[in-house]
Structure formats: C-alpha cells, structure tokens
Amino acid sequence: MKKCASIVAFALMALMTVSGSAFAQRPQRTKPVTKAVVFKHKKNHSKRVVVYHPYWAPRMAFYRRWVYFPRLNIYWDNLRGLYVYRNGTVWVTSVSIPAVIVNVDLSKEKHFELPKENDAVDEVYQSNQQHSKLTDD
What we know:
With 137 residues, the protein is of the alpha+beta class. It has 2 helices and 7 strands. It has one domain (35-131). The chain has helices at 2-24, 128-131, and strands at residues 35-42, 45-52, 66-69, 74-77, 82-87, 90-94, 112-113. It has a 5-stranded antiparallel sheet, with no helix packed on it. Strands 1-2 form a two-stranded antiparallel sheet.
C-alpha cells in the first residue's frame, strides 16, 4: 500500500511539474503601444496632441495619420495600423507587410507625413498623383 501511495504521489508531482512548465511557455499576446496622447500647456491653455509611434519605427514620432513613401509608392495609416499599396491596377489595404517591402527598413526610407487635411480621408490613394510629386525642399 505504501509503495502504491508513493507511486501515485510521484506521478502527481510529475504531472504538476510538467503542466506548470507547459503553461509558462505559452506565448503572451500583447499589443504594442502605437499611439500616445500628449497635453501641451501654454499660457494656461492646454492643447491635445496625438503622437503616433509605428512598430516599424518605434523611436520616431508622427503627428499625422498618413505617412507616404514615394520610392515605394506605399502609404502607412497610423490610425488603423495599415499599409495601403498598389497591386497592379487595384489599391490594396493590408495589416501585414506587403511582399514588395519585406526586406526594406521603413525607418530609413524617405517618407512624408501628409497634410492635416488628409487625416479625415480614408481613400488617400485617390490623390496619389499629387503625393508622388512630393519632394523634400
């Protein structure tokens, strides 16, 4: 009887150890912080400023919704965390990185924040002709 009890106790201890380590190795799903709200105080007036930090450039700060990459002809939507790019004759919206830019470091690419007027526009690609003419003066 003692031998049976010790075997059951040993099996129970082994089961608890194995299940505990398996639970500890489960990946944790966390969402990166990509948006910060900053309040600037100036002469007794506070101003709300939204600052975006995309996951591909966490140390950079963007103050507008749309970022345009002229060499790649791709838009990044800071508000929704989406890429908008042209695939043939169709504009595609995607959460995942487009195949065209998989090996490109976007933080080092030339980019432009589109003006404030474009923040309310979802179909920003309709003005692509004007955006493709943007240059850094």
